[in-house]
């Protein structure tokens, strides 16, 4: 990542600047996406902007950005202790009918299983 950008994003207090950079430069910043995700993980205390980034990358190209989406989701699961963002994330990534396929999804996707257990603790899988 170029030094000027790195310096600017190091001042990002919560992940919004990094998210905006990704959104405004999608396709042009793929070669530094890992560093951008690292920065979001470092600065976003609640996971709010990581959820936005994961949803955005998923909407743009879920296959191309799969590794980055997975890292963002795994970190959000840890940071979103109040479960403010997980319900929106699960529907954005796995669809509004995710509950109908919970067992199948949980068997194939660890991030899904972990989110599902957090937002529906009494139901289990």
Describe this structure in words.
- With 125 residues, the chain is mainly alpha-helical.
- It has one domain.
- It has helices at 3-10, 16-24, 33-43, 48-60, 66-79, 86-94, 102-108, 110-119.
- It is globular, with a radius of gyration of 15 Å.
Largest sheet: none
H/E topology pattern: HHHHHHHH
If helices are DSSP runs of H or I spanning 4 or more residues, what is the number of helices? 8
Number of domains: 1
Tell me the β content: under 5%
**Helix-residue proportion:** 55-70%
User: How many beta-strand elements?
Assistant: 0
- What oligomeric state do these chains adopt? single chain
Over all CA atoms, what is the radius of gyration?
Answer: 15 Å
Residue runs with pLDDT of under 50 for 5 or more positions? none
- Average pLDDT, rounded to a whole number, is 94
């Amino acid at each position: 990542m170029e030094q000027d950008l790195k310096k600017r994003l190091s001042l990002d207090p919560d992940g919004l600047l990094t998210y905006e950079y990704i959104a405004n430069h999608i396709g042009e910043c793929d070669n530094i996406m890992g560093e951008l995700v690292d920065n979001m993980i470092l600065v976003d205390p609640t996971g709010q902007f990581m959820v936005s980034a994961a949803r955005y990358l998923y909407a743009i190209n879920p296959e191309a950005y799969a590794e980055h989406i997975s890292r963002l989701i795994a970190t959000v699961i840890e940071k979103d202790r109040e479960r403010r963002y997980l319900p929106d994330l699960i529907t954005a990534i796995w669809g509004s009918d995710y509950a109908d396929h919970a067992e199948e999804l949980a068997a194939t996707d660890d991030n899904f299983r972990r989110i599902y257990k957090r937002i529906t603790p009494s139901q289990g899988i």
